């Protein structure tokens, strides 16, 4: 990514944030696209949010990779998505901490369930870290 592209993204991002007044959800906003040969097109809130995230990343000089996740994944893929071993994943499935189903003799998981589990796990880790920081502050422990 060139410095010109980063600067263009930064300027556009600032312009969007300055005009962000219209909101159609609690945490979202609207973006209207217009070209010279069509009527304006309103992006759904979810797409506007994705667009905003992309713009933020590019405006900071980051790299964006767009991909897709299948609706249903194998246990190996699910384990990779979670950053755990396949046996650990199977233990989560056996303990019903993570929903799975059989496709013939093979265990499959819905990617939305895997991503929800990952998000919940990350949230628990973040909460635990914040509690630890608060305890350090309370005890006066410094780095």
Short description:
This protein has 143 residues and is mainly alpha-helical.
Keywords, separated by commas or semicolons:
143 residues, mainly alpha, three-stranded antiparallel sheet, 5 strands, 12% strand
What is the averaged pLDDT score?
87
Helical proportion, percent range = 40-55%
- How big is the Rg? 21 Å
Q: How many extended strands?
A: 5
- Our estimate of the beta-strand percent is 5-15%
H and E order? HEEHEHHEEH
Silhouette: flat
Distance between the amino and carboxyl termini = 37 Å
Count of runs of 4 or more consecutive helical residues: 5
Structural class by sheet pairing and helices = mainly alpha
Q: Within the largest sheet, what's the order of strands? A: 3-5-4
Largest sheet: 3 strands, antiparallel
Unreliable runs: 22-26
Oligomer: single chain
Describe the structure.
Helices cover about 55% and strands about 10% of the residues. With about 140 residues, the protein is mainly alpha-helical. The strands form two sheets. A three-stranded antiparallel β-sheet has the order 3-5-4. α3 packs across α4. The longest helix is centred in the C-terminal third of the chain and has 29 residues. The radius of gyration is 21 Å and the shape is flat. About 5% of the residues have low confidence.
């Amino acid at each position: 990514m060139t410095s010109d592209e980063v600067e263009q993204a930064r300027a556009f991002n600032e312009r969007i944030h300055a005009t962000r007044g219209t909101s159609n959800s609690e945490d979202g906003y609207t973006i209207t696209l217009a070209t010279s040969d069509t009527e304006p097109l309103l992006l759904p809130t979810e797409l506007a949010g994705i667009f905003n995230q992309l713009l933020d990343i590019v405006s900071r000089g980051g790299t964006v990779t767009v991909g897709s996740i299948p609706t249903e994944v194998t246990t190996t893929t699910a384990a990779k998505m979670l950053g755990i071993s396949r046996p650990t994943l199977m233990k989560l499935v056996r303990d019903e901490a993570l929903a799975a189903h059989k496709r013939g003799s093979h265990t499959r998981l819905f990617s939305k369930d895997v991503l929800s589990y990952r998000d919940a796990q990350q949230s628990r880790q973040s909460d635990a870290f914040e509690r630890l920081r608060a305890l350090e502050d309370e005890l006066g422990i410094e780095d």
